[in-house]
């Protein structure tokens, strides 16, 4: 069953048994019969740019032979739909955030993405998407519920540990690497914004920080956010001050958008509605500054950055991706000259003698 007539839902409250059966049949490639299902809203939803529903489903599969005893299976899902609050819904529609997130999750189901991550020795760094769809007014994204596999969001009042930060940096480094590799192979593959929409981002970041200050009132995170609030413009402009390269970036990377397993060795990054083609420095800075214990980035910054860069470099090598590209050179020259350039021809050559060089 390679096609589906599924349409996005207005809300998780509009979910039906028939819709779920078609969803699971589409994902599994054969028909299913649901025996039991429930949907539940999160206890706290203020400030979310989507309405969330946690779904539990029990079903039988038609793939099993009728002569054998049938085994009841189960699956846990997360549904994301348009936010109920009108201003938030208008914001999502105005800047096409739902389409960007749907398109990203579709990309993560591609053979190119999955193979790259596998060669990089990384288990899938984002939740599995069962289905995603959107139109001008509504959207629905159905994801694997990782909380049932002992993943959880770990927002530590005093900041997250060095190991949690390193694990997150390793995963985002590989997503940055696969994004760059895809751009090298297919220059126009992605239909994501290529530049930060500065005015929009400043407005949204300020509103989001104010909401989080209320959520974390009384602990260190709130104090950090209050300090960040006065530096929003500097934070937004960090990419232009420290140019590196253009690739897929999360654009809202802090520990609240990261799910971590029990032993802090595996993470999955969620909430990709602000995905952008931009400077990976943005993801690194926001993660460390908004989520790390001060001691982590004050005493171990070199270790953290080496963790990121070594993972990025190894991912490129294991997937046989050349580091230098036409896109990188064009961005370098554009930065140096102060205006855009278009390269017509370029070559790279190694020196005849390199023994003893420290680079």
Describe it for me?
The chain has 359 residues and is an alpha+beta fold. 42% of the residues lie in helices and 15% in strands. Strand 7 (258-260) and strand 8 form a beta hairpin. The strands form 3 sheets. Strands 1-2-3-5-4 form a 5-stranded antiparallel sheet. It starts with 16 loop residues before the first helix and ends in a 22-residue tail after the last helix. It has 2 domains: 12-81, Dihydrodipicolinate Reductase, domain 2, CATH 3.30.360; 150-337, Aminoglycoside 3'-phosphotransferase, Chain: A, domain 2 (Alpha-Beta Complex), CATH 3.90.1200. Residues 141-318 form the CHK kinase-like domain. This is CHK kinase-like domain-containing protein.
Keywords:
359 residues; alpha+beta; Dihydrodipicolinate Reductase, domain 2; Aminoglycoside 3'-phosphotransferase, Chain: A, domain 2; 2 domains; five-stranded antiparallel beta sheet; two-stranded antiparallel ribbon; 9 strands; 42% helix; globular
């Amino acid at each position: 069953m390679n096609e589906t007539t599924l349409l996005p839902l207005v809300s998780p409250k509009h979910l039906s048994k028939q819709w779920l059966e078609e969803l699971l049949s589409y994902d599994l490639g054969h028909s299913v019969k649901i025996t039991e299902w429930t949907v539940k809203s999160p206890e706290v939803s203020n400030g979310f740019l989507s309405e969330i529903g946690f779904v539990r489903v029990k079903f039988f599969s038609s793939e099993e032979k009728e002569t054998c005893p049938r085994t009841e299976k189960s699956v846990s899902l997360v549904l994301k739909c348009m936010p109920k609050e009108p201003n938030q819904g208008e914001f999502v529609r105005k800047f096409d955030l739902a389409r960007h997130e749907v398109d990203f999750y579709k990309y993560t189901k591609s053979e190119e993405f999955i193979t790259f991550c596998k060669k990089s020795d990384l288990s899938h760094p984002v939740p599995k998407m069962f289905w995603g769809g959107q139109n001008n007014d509504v959207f629905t994204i159905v994801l694997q519920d990782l909380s049932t596999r002992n993943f959880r969001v770990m927002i530590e009042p005093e900041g997250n540990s060095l190991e949690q930060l390193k694990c997150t940096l390793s995963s985002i480094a590989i997503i940055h690497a696969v994004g760059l590799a895809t751009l090298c192979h297919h220059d126009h593959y992605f239909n994501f914004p290529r530049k930060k929409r500065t005015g929009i981002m400043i407005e949204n970041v300020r509103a989001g920080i104010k909401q989080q200050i209320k959520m974390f009132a009384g602990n260190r995170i709130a104090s950090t956010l209050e300090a960040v609030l006065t530096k929003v413009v500097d934070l937004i402009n960090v990419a232009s001050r420290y140019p590196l390269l253009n690739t897929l970036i999360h654009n809202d990377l802090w520990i609240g958008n990261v799910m971590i397993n029990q032993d802090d060795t595996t993470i999955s990054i969620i909430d990709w509605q602000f995905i952008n083609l931009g400077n990976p420095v943005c993801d690194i800075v926001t993660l460390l500054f908004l989520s790390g214990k001060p001691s982590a980035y004050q005493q171990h910054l070199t270790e953290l950055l080496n963790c990121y860069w070594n993972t990025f470099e190894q991912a490129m090598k294991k997937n046989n991706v050349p580091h230098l590209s036409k896109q990188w050179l064009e961005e370098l020259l554009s930065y140096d000259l102060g205006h855009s350039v278009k390269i017509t021809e370029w070559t790279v050559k190694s020196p005849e003698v390199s023994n003893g060089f420290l680079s």
